[in-house]
Amino acid sequence: MQDKISKSEQEWKEKLTPEQYHVLREKGTERAFTGTYNNSKKHGTYCCAGCGTELFESNTKFDSGSGWPSFFEAISPENVELETDMSHGMVRVEVMCAKCGGHLGHVFNDGPAPSGKRFCINSASLNLNENND
Questions:
Q1: Is residue 65 part of a domain?
Q2: Of 19, 93, 103, 115, whose CA is between 20 and 30 Å from 11?
Q3: Residues making up the binding site
Q4: DSSP reduced 3-state for 73
Q5: Does the annotation count 120 as an active-site position?
Q6: Residue 66 carries which DSSP code?
Q7: Where does Zn(2+) bind (predicted)?
Q8: For residues 10, 22, 123 and 132, what is the CA-based torsion angle, rounded to 10 degrees?
Q9: Is residue 2 a part of any domain in this protein?
Q10: Residue 1 lies in a domain
């Protein structure tokens, strides 16, 4: 992984939309079934909306029915950080961008083969770099 980036909260507010800021910097979430990429079938690489780090490939995306874009694996384990999240009276595993520390979503152990993982990610935390594959 590349060196971590650090910005002031004001710099983040200037760079991100209000929704992106809420999700990435305040650990918020978008409402289920409302995100841009929830039903997307476009091909490409999903990158962090905060810093551009490549996070997920479209060929790892699947329809989990959860209301958020879901992926069964990250492009590289070094591009995401996982941390125990005990907020909201639950114990979950938070997924963050390893480069900028932005909150992406959570990962669960109920995904498809080959990983058995479901990275449940907010659309607001992502940008899709499309390709024509």
A1: yes
A2: 93
A3: 48, 51, 97, 100
A4: coil
A5: yes
A6: S
A7: 48, 51, 97, 100
A8: -10
A9: no
A10: no
Binding site members for Zn(2+): 48, 51, 97, 100
Given 47, 49, 120, 128, the catalytic residue: 120
CATH of the domain at 52: 2.170.150.20
Do residues 82 and 95 make contact, with C-beta atoms less than 8 angstroms apart? yes
Give 10-residue mean pLDDT values along the chain (133 residues): 84 96 96 96 97 97 96 96 91 96 97 96 97 67
User: What secondary structure does DSSP assign to 75-114, as a single string?
Assistant: S-GGGEEEEEE-GGG--EEEEEETTT--EEEEEES---TT
Structural domain including 84 reads 9-130
Q: How many structural domains compose the chain?
A: 1
Verdict on whether the full-model pTM lies above 0.85: yes
| Residue keyed to tokens 């790892």 | 60
Which residues, listed in sequence order, are joined to residue 56 by a DSSP beta bridge?
A: 46
How many other C-beta atoms can be found within 10 angstroms of the C-beta atom of residue 36? 14
- Kindly report the CA angle at 68 between 64 and 74, in degrees rounded to 5? 80
